[in-house]
Amino acid sequence: MSDPAGQSANGGATTAHVRYVLALADDALIASQRMGEWIASAPELEEDVALANIGLDLLGQARSLLAHAGRLEGAGRGEDDLAYFRDERDFLNVQLVERENGDFAVTMARLLLLSTYLHELWSALRTSSDETLAAIAAKAVKEVDYHVDHARMWVLRLGDGTEESHARMQAGLEAEWPYSEELFDDSHVDPALVEAGAAIDPATLRDAWQRRVAAVVSEATLALPDVRPAVTGGRRGVHTEQMGYLLAEMQYLARSHPGASW
Amino acid sequence: MNTPRSRDWPLWEVFVRSRRGLSHVHVGSLHAPDAEMALRNARDLYTRRQEGVSLWVVPAAAITASSPDEKDSFFEPAADKIYRHPTFYEVPEGVEHL
């Protein structure tokens, strides 16, 4: 990781600690923004509401995490400052969450990969020595459990459905799979934070994740993709072309009308 | 999204129990491809503001309903039989929960 784990201005939180929480926050925030794009475009009205609910769960997690990162940083930045007034290179989310939605099967493949990882992550972080993080984890784990369930329901039905739905579900998995590798990239996690029990080394979540995803994929009569991991760099602030468009839409209002409220 | 078959999703009636001890009450309906998905859609549509602790979904096709045409023969005859209401005897003192 390029950023040294130096002490920040306020009581003892290291830069590495702030960046760790920011990375968690950005995953949730950007995933939420993408989920929101489905509202009024999902296959059925019922699914509009389901995806909106999932997006709102993620947004709630993002808000708590951004506020926590702001307090740790101690520079007076709140959740809105961090969400709306950082530029692309300052966002630390994995590229998986910023990718365009694609068709419904692509979104369900991504939701399965992401939320299974998030479920393992939040389960582990419930015992974090960072008490705020532990509290956020305790709430998030129940929400994410439902997201896994929703993705699983659809992957099973599309995978084990018609010839076309099977083909499109498999294509969705193939498209998203290369970007799942980055979830387990531990290069941005300071070993001292893991040592102190505040952070989880994401690489340790991999086996459980792989087992759970493989079980769903096989039950859905699909095949685990055999594709090379994508070259990514989200944790270092390196993003895909699509990220700029996403941020433009997400940040436009707050930047055009600073302090706007309703 | 191209969903040629979405119109074929059957209709489900949703019943929510708002808390323990109360009965499930009909709250509305939704479309879903099968019972498992119907239950999840019901959770998302009808309990997102903490409306319930238990959910039932029932295929709308499985409900046999009385017809508006039969309203007179079904319900009219009860109108003038007030003796069916339990108001013609005295409740002894001290009896609660009647």
Can you describe this structure?
The complex is a heterodimer of chains A (262) and B (98). With 262 residues, chain A is mostly helical. Helix content of chain A is 60%, strand content 0%. In chain A, α4 runs antiparallel to α8. Chain A is globular and about 55 Å long. Chain B is an alpha+beta fold. Chain B contains two helices and three strands, in the order ββαβα. Chain B has helices at 35-46, 71-75; strands spanning 11-17, 25-31, 54-59. Chain B has a three-stranded antiparallel sheet with strand order 2-1-3, covered by helices on one side. In chain B, β1 and β2 form a beta hairpin. The longest helix of chain B has 12 residues, at 35-46. The termini of chain B are far apart. The mean pLDDT of chain B is 86.
**Structural class label of chain B:** alpha+beta
Largest sheet of chain B: 3 strands, antiparallel
Biggest chain pair interface = A-B, 16 and 16 residues
- What is the radius of gyration of chain A computed over CA atoms, rounded to a whole number of angstroms? 18 Å
The number of helical elements of chain A comes to 9
Spatial ordering of strands, largest sheet of chain B: 2-1-3
Give the helix proportion of chain A (percent range): 55-70%
Order of H and E elements of chain B: EEHEH
Shape descriptor of chain A reads: globular
Radius of gyration of chain B: 20 Å
Low-confidence stretches of chain A: 1-10
Sketch the topology of chain A as an H/E string, one letter per element: HHHHHHHHH
Low-confidence stretches of chain B: none
Given helix and strand content, the structural type of chain A is mainly alpha
Any idea what the shape of chain B is? flat
Helix content of chain B: 10-25%
Number of strands of chain A: 0
